[in-house]
Amino acid sequence: MRAEKGSIGLKPIVFIIILAALLLLFFRPAGPCEKPLTYRIGAVDERFGLSREEFSRLVAKAASVWSAPMVRELFREEPDGKIVISLVYDFRQEASEKLKQLNYDIRHTRATYEELKVRFETLKTEFDDKKQRLEEDLGAFNRQVRVFNEENETVRRQGGVSEEDYQRLMREKENLNANQSQLQSRQAELNRTAETLNSMAVVINEIAREHNLGTVTYREEGGKLGDEFQKGQYARKGLKENITVYQFDGEKSLIRVLVHELGHALGLSHNDYPHAVMHRLVPDGASYDLTPADIAALKARCGER
Question: How many domains does the chain contain in total?
Fold first, then answer.
């Protein structure tokens, strides 16, 4: 009887062990790449000229680049997807487009960098010269305005003015108004040149960082332009994950930026292979195909060889 009771007493323990094993099997956290990462489309700024549907298609194409070597789905778009992917228009995209509108040929090559630097320095010299002359003419204009106002006030205090003096004051006023209009036009032209210089500085610095070249500074609009240029960014804060694309030049460029940031979402870091999609820099015109270095990093992350 004692042996039989002992056998019965083991059954609950065995059951608990089996139940714990099943719970561990079914509810353990999924390892890297075991389940597709879900995403959804966030904000899509209309100034990029892409609809949400077109952007969704390109994101899916970028996601498939990572899925191909694993022969399984690594990303999936869902209405409540965890990763929010957005297109945010900022000053870097605006700078590139502004130069294109001015017929600048923007290519991310060293030759373009050298050409833009020469044009920047030439335009900057012209700008400085025009700005100095405008400031001198503005000073002279303001002095003329003060003299006119003082004379006008003197005449008013004297209680009247002759017809001759009145006609002279009106002519002076008309001349001042004409000079003011001309000075305002020159100031507007100078402002447009300043905007062009700002745009050139942004693009030059972008290309410079891609090729480890010297950057330029321009302080007319409030200081040195350009921190570390980022065409896109993956960010994780708590349970929130975001991929934001700030700048691209065409469909191929956008896909490459997305492939790079989706790689970060998978847990991949930058690598030192220059042509890899996970290299620190994301140059325009580069292929978005995975290199052996990218595939090796992906398989190591997913626990495969």
Answer: 2
